[in-house]
Each structure stands twice: as C-alpha cells, then as structure tokens.
Amino acid sequence: MAALKAQPKWKVWLWAARPKTLPAALSPVLVGTALAYADGTFRLGPAVAALLGALLLQIGVNFANDYFDWAKGVDRPGRKGPLRVTQSGLVSPREMRLGMAVVFGLSALVGLYLVAVAGWPILLIGAAALLCALLYSGGPFPLGHCGLGDLLVFFFFGLVAVVGTYYVQALTFSWEALVWAVPVGALVTAILVVNNFRDLDTDREAGKRTLAVLLGERGTRLEYALLLMSAYVVPLGVWLAEVRPASVLLPWLSLPWALGLLRTLGKTPIADGETLNRALARTARLSFLYSALLGLGLML
Questions:
Q1: How far is CA 77 from CA 70, 81, 132, 213, 240, in A?
Q2: Distance between CA 83 and CA 252 in Å, rounded?
Q3: How many CB atoms lie within 10 A of CB 128?
Q4: Distances (CA, A) of 124 to 48, 100, 115, 235
Q5: Phi-psi region of 295 (alpha: psi -120 to 50; beta: other; left: phi over 0)
C-alpha cells in the first residue's frame, strides 16, 4: 500500500478512469459515425463532440461507481477486481466527489454544444444519461444493484449512443442505426457481464443484486454467450436481407477472438479473478475491434 500511495496523482486518477473499459464509449460512436459517412451526412464537429461526450460520461460512471460502491460498503478487502481508489484511500471521498462533478460538468458542456447542433431531443437524451449515470450506483435504490445494470448499459451505450451519434450528424432518425446498435450494445454489455461474473460472490455477500447474482454462474455464462452470438447474427441478417453489401460481414473476422473468450468464460471459476480481469479487458478490445471492422464495412 505504501508503494501505491507513492504513485503520482495523475496515475491514480488514470486508474480511477479505468481505461480498459473506455472502448465501451468509443465503439458506438465509431459505428454511428461510419453509418453517417456511408449515408453522406458525416459532420466532423458533432462526431468529435459525440466521442468526447461519450468518453466523459463513461469516465464519470466509473468515478461514481468507485465512490458509491465504497460509500455503500460494496467494495471490501479481498475483492478480485482492479484497484478501487476510494476504497484504498488513494483518493479521498471529497476528491472523488469533486472529480465526478468536474467530469459530469464537462460532459454537460459538450452536451450543450450538441443540443445547439441537433435540438431538444439531445437535451432529453443527455439529461437521462446523466441521471442514470448517477443513479446506477448512487441514490437510495441504485439501478445497478437491482438487476437493471445490463439493460441500462445496452440501452445507453448501445441503442442511444449509436442512434444519437448518427442523429447529431444527419439530423434525422435512422432505423438502420437502431439495427446496428444491437450488436454494439450486446458487446458493450458483455464487458459488464464479465465484471459482474467475477464479483458474483462478493456482490451477493454485500447485498448487491446484479443480474449475475440473480442468474447465478450458469445463467451468467449463458447470457455472455448469447450476447456475443447476437453480435455476429445481425451483420449476417442485414447482408442476407440485401440492405448492405457483403462488406458488413467484416466483423466476422473478429469471431476467433469471440470464440476464445467464450471458452475462457465457460471454464474459468469465479475464484480466478486474474483470468477474469484479463477476459474483461479482452472483451472490451473485442468490442472495439468489432466496431472498427463494422465501421469500415459500412463505409466501404
């Protein structure tokens, strides 16, 4: 612990931001922007703002989770996940609250620009996203503690993020963007599934009823498999329906990585936190690789 406390403050805040989870913010913006480019409606300013806003919101969620899980006694000694800076004393609760305020404030400023560009629908979406980011781990009834975390991540980091990124550039709703949001949201949700699978026992002891706690080990493994499988079904369906050319099958190049992750999660016991931490990082990288290939396929 003494060695940790000797680390520079910037590195501690970088740990708190959890960079391995940030592909969850990048992936949907990548796909929404690629679709806008394919449709001839790409706009650089709104695309960059959507990317920055998504990153800030993800970092804010990570800060809030770090703080509120400490405040509610969820983070305890012996947890298998990565370092939590509030629990470890590297960042004081007051500093973490200030960090949350700064990051969420910056995301709100980015949101105001997008509202000016795209109008009141973005105001409603942004307000809902900020509110859920705080209520995911905070408040009297944290949404992530009662089995709703997976659904919220799929909705906001999948459906809303892809469709919203397209909307701020095209200024119109796209049903196709909604279709492509499904595999993106599935893979981003899979990141959370690995996290909750690893913490299943400690969350159950702390009274945190994640979907993994409700489903149990076998059910959570099945959920992860279904999420990954659905991501590869969608491009195939779009191609077979002749909506887009065969280039949208490019994400299938990432299938070997997905199969490897399925094998890992299928055989790794919850007690093996180190392997599951690596699986979480690999799932995040899969999400980004899949989205990059999909974006390329759409632009081609």
A1: 11, 11, 28, 19, 51
A2: 34
A3: 13
A4: 20, 21, 9, 30
A5: alpha
pLDDT in tens, the chain (300 residues): 556 666 788 899 998 999 988 888 999 999 999 999 999 999 999 999 999 999 999 999 999 989 988 888 776 666 666 778 898 889 999 999 999 999 999 999 999 999 999 999 999 999 998 888 888 888 778 888 888 999 999 999 999 999 999 999 999 999 999 999 999 999 999 999 999 999 998 888 888 899 999 999 999 999 999 999 999 999 999 999 999 999 999 999 999 999 999 999 999 999 899 999 999 999 999 999 999 999 999 999
- Residue 146 backbone dihedrals phi, psi, to 5 degrees: -130, 35
For the chain, the structural domain boundaries read 10-299
Name 146's bridge partners: 209
N-term to C-term CA, the chain: 51
d(CA 158, CA 190) in angstroms, rounded, equals: 11
The structure tokens listed for 285 are 């990288």
With 0.85 as the threshold, say if the pTM is over it.
yes
